[in-house]
Amino acid sequence: MRARPTFLRSSAALAGGWLLLVAAFGLYSAESHRQALELDVSESGRALQRAVSQRVAQHDAHLTSLSALGLAQAQPSEDFDLVAKSILRFYPRIVAIDLIRLTPGEGASVVSSATSADGATASPEEVSKAVAALTAGKAVYGADARPGHYRLMKRMNDTMAVSLDIDGARLVEDEELPRWALLRLATGEGTLLELGAAQPAGSGFLARTIRFEAPIASATQPLRLSLQRHVTLAALLPPLPLALFAAISLAGLVLVRSLLRHRQEAALAREAAEAAARREALRQHETKLAHALRINSMGEMASGIAHELTQPLTALLSQSQAGRRIAAAAGLKDTPIDGVLAANVLQAKRAADILVRLRAYVGKSAPEAGVHDLSRHVADIVALSRIDLDRRGIALDVDLPEAPALARVDPVEIEQVIHNLIRNAADAVGEAGRTDGRVRVALTPDAAGYAIHVRDNGAGIAPDILPRLFEPFFSGKPDGMGLGLSLCESIVERFDGSISAENAAAGGAVFTVRLPAADGIEEREEAAE
Questions:
Q1: Is 259 helix (H, G, I), strand (E, B) or coil?
Q2: Banded pLDDT at 482 (limits 50, 70, 90)
Q3: Which end of the chain is more exposed for a tag (fewer CB within 10 A), N or C?
Q4: Nearest 5°: phi and psi at 121?
Q5: DSSP per-residue letters across 17-45
């Protein structure tokens, strides 16, 4: 029998195995959520990087446009102011546009300035200082005093420069920034601005921060974008899925344990049943061996008894025959004394034949059967049995057919069977204590031969005894040996017949001996040849 897994054998082991299973699921779930969150932060960061890179690229394009417009005018004109104000209106992250005149030796001055509500005019000196080292057409990044702002300045020629004041917070629109994110824009000098969700100062169990960093693609604006997300234990390990898994896994383990336990109990019960069957088979085998030993012993004893009885029977037969001769010499032939001696001679010869057949049966060399009239032999044994039944006050009825009933049997053995059945019927009537005891013997044609019925009006056969009537050494009588019916069955079966017993509907028992007709036997033998 296959053993159950160790962790299912006890409740404590089951609980430990369940906790390990839940812990393994928790680690797997936490790792899966961590990877998913890292992917989410990475994808959001790259999307913001692309958007910001496109917008700072627009700043360079505006500088180029404004520079070209400023150089085309000898003096500042309304066209420059209109374009600058239009840029401020459509690009709100640009909050101020200044056109600066650079006069060597005289300082710098603001020629034109367009500002929004959040903007401020640039300092000409700072712009002049920032672009002093630049060649014409080059731009430079510059810091701004206001938090989150920076300036982008370009030298147009030796005498002119343009400056853009940019609000870095507006480089990212509100709907583009995830609600969980903290965004940082930084330069080499430090953090320019921070936007988004505030991050906790400390970290709890299994909490961590996921970061994404990438530079903004711009040669003039050296910005670096950083996006980070603080992940708590609840985000890495959602309580509801963990609780559902814990409940389902516990129910599954309990169910598996119950099924395995039932399977083990069934296997134990099956093994116990098989062991009981083996013990019963062994007991039956021992019983059969004991029966065989008893049969062998009875055979040896019967052979010895037959041998010992042969001599007194021979003497009885010789003395009876001598008595008849003496009676005949004295003129007493056909007198009652002669009849008694004749009966002794007849019964001595019959007893001798029985002993011969008994010794032949024990020696497994039974005499060969011949074709005989069953009616005559049934009548003979009924006549022999009637004296004993009349003495016991039991009526004996006989019903025989007029035509001969020919069957292939041994006459002495078939008479022995009928005599045994009549004696058993008389014993059953006597045990029932009936005053109207009756035994009836009938010989009737049967489907394939003839049937001999021996019926009595006794108490019948007990239901627990009926199936075992023909077993050797089994007897329903207190002093019975259990060999009579077994021997009858052996004799009848040797003549290709059968014997059965049943309780009659009107009471009492009926024993039936069925024998094939002699012509039917001859036909089967011819067909076999």
A1: helix
A2: low
A3: C
A4: -65, 140
A5: HHHHHHHHHHHHHHHHHHHHHHHHHHHHH
